[in-house]
Each structure stands twice: as C-alpha cells, then as structure tokens.
Design brief:
Layout (H helix, E strand, L loop, with lengths): L6 E9 L5 H12 L11 E7 H12 L6 H6 L1 H6 L1 H15 L2 H15 L13 E9 L2 H14 L4 E8 L2 H6 L11 H4 L9 E4 L6 H19 L7
Parallel strand pairs: 1-3, 1-4, 2-3, 4-5
Helix pairs in contact: 1-10
Organism: Acanthamoeba castellanii (strain ATCC 30010 / Neff)
EC number: 2.7.4.2
Subcellular location: Cytoplasm, Cytosol
Length: about 230
C-alpha cells in the first residue's frame, strides 16, 4: 500500500436488519480506534458517525416523555419495539428535508480531513483517515455524498460498503420476519448495484470481520489512492 500522503475516505456502511453491520462497525472501532498500526502497516485514524444516531437524537427529543434515549441506542429489543414509531417519524422528517443529516455528517468529515499535523514526518500522523457513516439505507444518501464530493473536487475516496448475511445465519442472530422488512428503510437499497465492497457476515466471532477490514478495506483504499503505474 503506497500511502506517501494521507488517504482520506468516507466509508458508507449499509445492511438490512441483523445483517451484522453493527458488529462490523464495532470491530472496526476496536481495530482502528485510537490509531491503528500493525507491523509495517499504515497508521489509521477513524471517526464513526451515523444518520441514524442524529435522527434518534431528534426522535427522543420529540418524544422525550415516551422514549428512553440510552435504551434506544443500546437495547436491540427496545429499539425493535419502537421501530414502527421511528419509521413513521422518519417519513415525516424526510418529507421536510431528506438530506439534513447527510449534510451534517459530510461537514464533520471535511473538518476531520482538513486537520493538518504540525510535523508531517511525525509517527503520529495518520496515513489513512476513515470517516465511517453507518446505517445508510437509501440510494439518495449515497448519491448525496457522490455529488457533493464531485462538485467540491475533494480529494476524498468514497467507499460504498454493503453488509449482507444468509437468512439462516440471521435467524441464529435473532432475526424473525416483521412487517418492517418490506418498508423502504429495509428495501431502499435492494436494487442498488454499485457497491465497492460487499462483506458476507456468515461466521460468529470477530476474526472473519477483522480480516475483511484489515485486508480488503484498507487494500481497496490504498489501491484507489496509489499513483498509476508509470504516472508522474
């Protein structure tokens, strides 16, 4: 991986219920959080953010007398109990301004990437900066980042990452059929075909996920930012 200058990437993470996207993000936080360097590999700086978390803040503020914000973030069963209510409120929010959360996250990413180190030769300088946007559910979210980065001519790599899992494995994780499975929040990316990376979550534990993040994701970003052979 040739990363003589820092590589900046926004990683859009998507997946259906019980696909394992939250597990992948958790492993990524452990792997990349606080600066990651393995052997002679690159040092990685990472930030994790979510349109869903921003929405949940608004949701719990709106229904403060009915919803426990902490449980909504940490308790899967509690979240599932209120999913239809959240979906109805999201439909209301989306009708007003569907990109409100995407724009806030893009600004956060740009602030991260614009930070410059006082000493570029320092060992503390990250060679890869990753801004993870988790919980992506719609093609227009992806298109917002694509178009915004293109218009600004930002030197930022966009990685479209899909997490999927076989049905039988999802059942092992606690999935059961629900009316929400046919809602746009679950089906909005069914026909999207421009994934840069697809991770199939079909094994328990962290090793499978760790190998994917370390070997596939970092390699993809490195190859995308390396000079072309014979280039100047």
């Amino acid at each position: 991986m040739d990363l003589s200058t820092p590589a900046n990437a926004i990683v859009l993470v998507s997946g259906k219920r019980f696909s394992g996207k939250d597990h992948l993000v958790g492993v990524a936080k452990g792997l990349f959080g606080g600066g990651h360097r393995e052997g002679c590999g690159p040092r990685v700086e990472s930030v994790f953010a979510s349109t869903t978390d921003l929405f949940k803040e608004d949701f719990t503020l709106k229904f403060r007398d009915e919803i426990d914000h902490d449980r909504l973030l940490t308790d899967r069963e509690y979240k599932e109990q209120h999913r239809m209510m959240m979906t109805a409120y999201w439909t209301e929010i989306k009708a007003l301004d569907q990109t409100r959360y995407c724009s806030r996250l893009l600004e956060q990413a740009r602030q991260m990437f614009s930070q410059t180190a006082a000493d570029p030769a320092s060992d503390d300088v990250a060679q890869v900066r990753l801004f993870f946007v988790t919980g992506v559910r719609y093609s227009w979210e992806i298109e917002y980042f694509e178009q915004s980065l293109h218009r600004a001519a930002d030197d930022v790599r966009l990685v479209r990452l899909r997490v999927q899992s076989p049905l039988e494995f999802k059942k092992q994780l606690g999935w059961h059929e629900s009316p929400i499975d046919s809602h746009e929040t679950e089906t909005g990316l069914d026909s999207f075909g421009r994934w840069d990376l697809v991770f199939t979550n079909d094994k328990l534990g962290d090793e499978h996920t760790t190998c994917f993040l370390r070997d596939r994701l970092l390699s993809f970003i490195g190859s995308a930012t390396s000079p072309e052979p014979g280039g100047g």
